[in-house]
Design goal:
Distance between the termini: 40 Å
Helix content: 40-55%
Shape: elongated
Number of strands: 21
CATH topology of the largest domain: C8orf32 fold
Strand content: 5-15%
Number of helices: 25
Oligomer: single chain
CATH architecture of the largest domain: Roll
Number of domains: 4
Length: about 725
């Protein structure tokens, strides 16, 4: 009985259930872009909607297989190939790629799988989910399981990743409870054997359900909430797994400026969220602070900072000697409202700060160079300020001749290393600098060492050292894969093994130049995002001060050097100030560029071409849909006629009779509210000069009031229905 009754559920309600399942499934896809390097998440969303649309139509299994399979084929071709999807070269390319990946699977070389094959597997998962959700939501109506899993999934991502699931939780709550309400009503309809036509004619029962769910959701969202009663579980869990901190334990972090550097390592995801814009004539590294003690896992400060308020908004912090030649310049910074960095972000040589913020004060930690911004003695992130600074030109001749510093306290602080540092780190530093005599030559040799020797700039699959491993040792001798933190920390540590004072510095690069000479005075407009958060190295030279150096691949510190133009060697040795690469744009092998997650420039243009091609296909589909809409009544007539012939039950007859009423209404034969079906039938028969509507109505009333009628459709009734339909459609 249940199977028979299940077929009587109107299509509109099963469709609502299935669409609810689709919306919940999309909540699984949306976070993928933020927690991975997936670039075109829209492709997966569109394919998911396509698969669900095919499933809801309940077409034949072979037709569904062909349509969904063609969707996979079309996407793979559009993203990964420059050939047309009917080209023999594309078939060869596809075959070779799949053959290679099958071999990799059999050899258990999981990381050797190509991007095309990984994308193929992800699309297959979406394909399978379209069927599973149809089974859960429509056939067995077990909504709760998938709803709970969705809640768990998005809340875990909200807790342990950069994904903000605030609205996702709200959407999931609304959709899940509406689907649960509809599913329970439909179950009662099946168990009580309620005629299906009553659901069609009285759909107002859904209004209280939707109202209650929406009202409770809005109240829950807007109501005041208590502060968290328990501490953040992430630090506790990280401490439980070997004390892992930021990026530890393989946790994926989002690139950006942060305070805690005690545990370096791990992958991060791209984040182009703007932080501030800068108006300036020259590119700068914007300094925020330095740290002096390397722990073997990351950086901390050996002493607690002592902050001194700056008088008259003049900045007394200096990283270089007053004898250095400088150029007076200005830079204006405007911060986004979402930026929350209560520290001054300043170029080298910062001298004076102007801000419209009333009561703003600047507190300097002389040891680290950190300048806290306060208003009424509270840490405050300022919205805008202008900095006057003296851009230094570091004298190469003096740097070459600089010897060991006479400041014993400075030397002790900035050459200190943990006793646990493996000896091979110092041995490598000695090997790199064995043919160099001066401090400057040794610094430059170690800086250049990372540009080759197998090192790779990469932001994903970056290792995290275990308790027994040293962060620098792991990078130098085991992985050779990492980003700015790996490169800069390794250079500082190797310099310290040579008794060269060096420290680790954090801040931002210049970002991306948006417009040249925006004010007619030579000031350019730059945009700095979270992706431009960066770390680099400062080395102390006696008589000169702290000089920035840049070991990270793809970056160059925008330093000026005062050189003797008569000395060609000095000119050649001076590093060029070339534009730096964004922190999140590593150099990747060419074969890895063909990826739906991070396509190359060449593939972006190819992708545009294929989507132009796809636009044509979409246009053709729209034309076909228009034709289907135009012929919808005749198509519906055909399907209802076949259903009457196959089933011959009460539901089929009810649908057929209601279809006649719908067609008559479309043709202008509206039924008056106080008019009975018999009176309406007489009116129709008089118009067409037949008795067909009256006979069909009598049969329908007998079915309604005598619910035990078996097989209400016979050949005579079928012919009456077909003849009347022909008259109506003309």
């Amino acid at each position: 009985m249940n199977n028979v009754n299940q077929q009587k559920i109107p299509f509109i309600f099963t469709s609502i259930l299935y669409i609810s399942g689709l919306v919940l499934f999309l909540e699984w896809l949306y976070p993928v872009k933020q927690i991975t390097d997936t670039e075109y998440i829209g492709i997966f969303v569109i394919y998911a909607i396509f698969c669900f649309f095919i499933s809801i139509l309940q077409v034949k299994w072979w037709l569904s297989f062909l349509l969904k399979g063609f969707g996979v084929y079309f996407i793979l071709n559009g993203v990964f190939s420059s050939y047309n999807f009917w080209s023999p070269m594309w078939f060869q390319e596809l075959y070779a790629n799949f053959f290679y990946n099958v071999e990799a699977l059999l050899a258990r070389q999981w990381f050797e799988l190509t991007n095309m094959f990984r994308t193929f597997l992800f699309l297959i998962i979406i394909w399978l989910m379209s069927y599973l959700i149809f089974y859960w939501f429509v056939q067995v109506k077990r909504i709760m399981i998938f709803s709970v899993l969705t809640f768990i999934y998005i809340t875990l991502l909200d807790t342990f990743t950069v994904y903000n699931a605030e609205w996702a939780i709200f959407r999931t709550f609304v959709i899940a409870f509406i689907a649960l309400g509809i599913a329970n009503v439909l179950k009662e309809v099946q168990s009580e054997n309620i005629p299906a036509y009553r659901l069609k004619t009285r759909p107002l029962w859904m209004i209280p359900l939707i109202f209650i769910v929406l009202f409770s959701s809005i109240v829950g969202y807007a109501a005041p909430k208590l502060e968290p009663q328990w501490p953040d579980p992430v630090p506790f869990i990280e401490s439980a797994i070997n004390g892992t901190g930021i990026g530890g334990g393989g946790t994926i972090q989002k690139v950006g400026y942060g305070d805690n550097d005690s545990r370096l390592g791990g992958s991060f995801v791209q984040d182009y969220t703007p932080v501030f814009t800068a108006f300036m004539k020259e590119e700068n590294y914007f300094r925020v602070e330095s740290k002096d003690y390397y722990t073997g896992k990351g950086w901390v400060n050996s002493e607690q900072g002592e902050y001194v308020e700056q008088v008259g908004r003049d900045i007394t912090f200096r990283t270089f000697s007053s004898t250095i030649e400088t150029e007076p310049l200005h830079v204006s910074l405007d911060f986004e409202k979402t930026a929350n960095i209560p520290k001054l972000i300043y170029p080298y040589g910062a001298d004076h700060v102007e801000t419209p913020k009333t009561g703003a004060a600047f507190w300097l930690d002389e040891q680290t160079g950190e300048i806290a911004t306060k208003v009424d003695n509270k840490d405050t992130s300022l919205e805008t300020y202008e900095i006057s600074y003296n851009r230094p030109s570091y004298p190469l001749d003096d740097m070459r001749e600089s010897g060991v510093t006479s400041d014993e306290e400075l030397l002790d602080r900035y050459t200190k290393l943990p006793n646990s540092l493996p000896s091979r780190v110092a041995e490598l530093a000695q090997e790199i600098t064995v043919n160099h005599q001066t401090q400057y030559e040794k610094v430059r040799a170690i800086e250049r060492y990372f540009s080759g020797n197998g090192f790779t700039y990469q932001i994903d699959d970056v290792a995290v050292p275990s308790d027994e491993q040293d962060y620098v040792d792991q990078f130098l001798f085991e992985t050779k894969i990492g980003y700015c933190d790996n490169f800069s920390t390794s250079m500082v540590v190797m310099l310290r093994t040579l008794d060269i004072p060096a420290r680790w510095v954090k801040g931002f690069t210049s970002g991306e130049k948006i417009e040249d000479n925006v004010d007619g005075e030579g000031n350019d407009f730059y945009q700095v995002t979270n992706a431009n958060a960066h770390s680099w190295v400062e080395v102390y030279f006696e008589g000169i001060g702290w000089v920035p150096f840049e070991p990270t691949q793809g970056f160059d510190a925008p330093n000026d050097y005062a050189v003797d133009t008569d000395n060609q060697d000095d000119v050649l040795d001076a590093p060029e100030a070339t534009p730096e690469a964004p922190e999140q744009e590593p150099q990747v092998p060419e074969q890895e560029a063909k990826d739906v997650f991070s396509p190359s420039k060449e593939e972006e243009s190819k992708f545009d071409f294929t989507w132009v091609h796809g636009t044509i296909i979409v246009g053709v589909l729209l034309i076909l849909l228009a034709i289907l809409y135009w012929k919808r009544n005749r198509l519906r007539t055909h399907f209802i006629e076949r259903r009457m012939m196959n089933k011959k039950d009460a539901e089929a007859y009810q649908d057929a009779y209601h279809f006649i009423l719908k067609l008559l209404n479309q043709k202008g034969f509206q039924k008056d509210p106080d008019q009975t079906l018999r009176e309406y039938a007489v009116r129709i028969d008089n118009w067409f000069g037949t008795d067909e509507m009256g006979r069909l109505t009598a049969n329908y009333e007998q079915l309604i009031y005598q619910q035990n009628v078996n097989n209400p459709i016979n050949e005579e009734v079928s012919n009456l229905w077909k003849n009347l339909i022909k008259r109506i459609l003309g």
